[in-house]
Amino acid sequence: MTENSISLSTHNGIVIPDNWAGYNLDVFSLPSHYCEDLECVFIPHGVIEDRTERIANEIMKDLGDNHITVLCVLKGGYRFCTDLVEHIKNLSRNSERFISMRVDFIRLRSYCNDTCMDEMQIIGGDDLSKLSGKNVLIVEFAGEKIRFQQWFQTRLYWI
C-alpha cells in the first residue's frame, strides 16, 4: 500500500491517510449545488452502502434467531440507522430466518445554554426499563462516542 492510498481491512474498516487527496469530483454524479462547496470525495456513497450492508450481515450473524430492539440516538445517527435497519430487513426477508425488529428513538442532551453538563439527559423514547432482558442495538453518531458509551452503559447496566 502506498502512502497516499486507501486500505481496506476487515477488522478496521476503511483507513484513509491524513494526506490523501480524495477522489476527483468529475468521476461522480453529484447535484450541481454541491459542486461549488466540495473539493473532493473521500468515501463514495456506494462504498458507504456496501459497508453498511456488511455491518447488517455481521449483526444478522451475531443475532442468531433473536429479535432486537434498535435504539437510534437522534439526530446524528438517524440516516445511518434507517439505512442499517433497511439492510437488516432485506437480509432477514431474503434468508431462511426472519428477525423481528422494533425501532425506538431517543435524544440525548449534554449541553444547557452552551455549557457542557456533567450528566446527560435522555429525551423521548419509551421507558428504558422496557429494554430489560432484550437484545438492544444502539445506533448513535460517533461525535461524543466515548463519553456517550461510558454514560449510557452505566444506565443500561442498572435496567
Written account of the structure:
- This protein has four helices and six strands, in the order E-E-H-H-E-H-E-E-E-H.
- With 159 residues, the protein is α/β, with parallel strands linked by helices.
- It has helices at residues 32-35, 45-63, 78-93, 145-157, and strands at residues 7-9, 13-15, 68-74, 101-112, 115-123, 136-139.
- Helix 2 crosses helix 3.
- The radius of gyration is 19 Å and the shape is globular.
- The longest helix has 19 residues, at 45-63.
- The mean pLDDT is 78.
- Helix content is 33%, strand content 24%.
- It folds into two domains: 7-43, no CATH class; 46-157, Rossmann fold.
- A hairpin with a 2-residue loop joins strand 4 and strand 5 (115-123).
- Strands 5-4-3-6 form a four-stranded mixed β-sheet, with helices on one face. It has a two-stranded antiparallel sheet with strand order 1-2.
- This is Phosphoribosyltransferase domain-containing protein.
- One of its GO terms (cellular component) is cytosol.
- Residues 48-140 form the Phosphoribosyltransferase domain.
Features:
4-stranded mixed sheet; alpha/beta; HGPRT; single chain; 2 domains; Phosphoribosyltransferase domain-containing protein; Rossmann fold; two-stranded antiparallel ribbon; PRTase_dom; 159 residues; globular
